[in-house]
């Protein structure tokens, strides 16, 4: 009972480390994602729509 499943998430690969850091640290998106490696972000499935919306506001496109 040391581990517990909290839900599902999506791994998102950014074009580079700088983009991943910019998104993960920005006040509009920091509560919606976590860094998971050099260029990868993790977003809970339930937060994905809001994350997409806010990433677009920051000027980043996101493929489906």
Map the helices and strands.
Elements: E1 9-13, H1 17-25, E2 34-35, E3 40-44, H2 48-57
Antiparallel strand pairs: 1-3, 2-3
Low-confidence stretches: none
Instruction: Count every helix, treating DSSP H or I runs of 4 or more residues as helices.
Output: 2
Number of strands: 3
Q: What is the overall silhouette?
A: globular
Give the mean pLDDT: 96
Q: What structural category arises from helix and sheet content?
A: alpha+beta
Order of helices and strands: EHEEH
Question: In angstroms, what is the radius of gyration?
Answer: 12 Å
Major β-sheet annotation: 3 strands, antiparallel
Strand portion, in percent?
Answer: 15-25%
Helix content: 25-40%
Please explain how this structure is put together.
With 64 residues, the protein is of the alpha+beta class. It has 2 helices and 3 strands, in the order E-H-E-E-H. The protein has helices at 17-25, 48-57; strands spanning 9-13, 34-35, 40-44. Strands 1-3-2 form a 3-stranded antiparallel β-sheet, covered by helices on one side. A hairpin with a 4-residue loop joins strand 2 and strand 3 (40-44). The longest helix has 10 residues, at 48-57. The model has no long low-confidence stretch (mean pLDDT 96).
């Amino acid at each position: 009972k040391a581990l517990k499943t909290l839900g599902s998430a999506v791994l998102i690969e950014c074009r580079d480390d700088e983009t991943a850091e910019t998104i993960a640290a920005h006040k509009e998106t920091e509560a919606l994602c976590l860094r998971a490696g050099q260029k990868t972000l993790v977003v809970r499935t339930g937060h994905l729509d809001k994350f997409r919306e806010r990433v677009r506001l920051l000027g980043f496109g996101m493929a489906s």
